[in-house]
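Quick start: what a row looks like.
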Amino acid sequence: MSLEIIENLRRAVIEYDTEAATSWAERAVAEKVEPTQALGALTEAIRQVGDRFGKGELWLPDLVGAADAMQAAMPLIEAELRRTGAKRESLGTVVVGTVFGDIHSIGKAMVCTLLTAGGFEVHDLGVNIKAEEFIEAIDEYKADVLAMSALLTMTAAEQRKVIDTLKERGIREKVKVMVGGGAITADFAESIGADGYDPTAPGAVGLAKRLLGK
């Protein structure tokens, strides 16, 4: 039964089936499937979709659909991980958010999903996040990486504000900063003092690994 549940969890993500992902995650909990195995099935599936997206075999709606399916199942599996005390190796802790004045979340959500699948502990602050909120989260979660998104040109400057605030607090060197979003370019990222930039959600995972030397 456990193998059937694991396989169906994997298939639900690959087939972008949010309802099935939720249902099979519930079954996994009810049948006491090892939560690390359930998580492994989800991450393997989203990694497969991300790889195919990177190769041009799938399109953005495919990646969004797979991310939605994984996100539907993840709260149930993560709750079971906490309940059982099961541990999984982490490559590092990442705080993620869309900057103040910007409420776009699709790209950020995909980055969070793929970072989780890539082995990172991810804390998604949401959208419209002020500099002070980023600072507090970095301190609370002992973040190794801060990932900020800005889709609008008018909100891109908020990324600079957050980095400047990190410098003012004397903690800039304690965290790697990666930026992205529709309004961001490599030149802009360099001009504001970010440690890295990638235009795609799958690319953000590789960037985070490189920044931490993984």
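That is the whole record. The chain has two domains: 2-84, 93-211. Residues 2-84 form a domain with the Methyltransferase, Methionine Synthase (B12-binding Domains); Chain A, domain 1 fold (CATH 1.10.1240.10).
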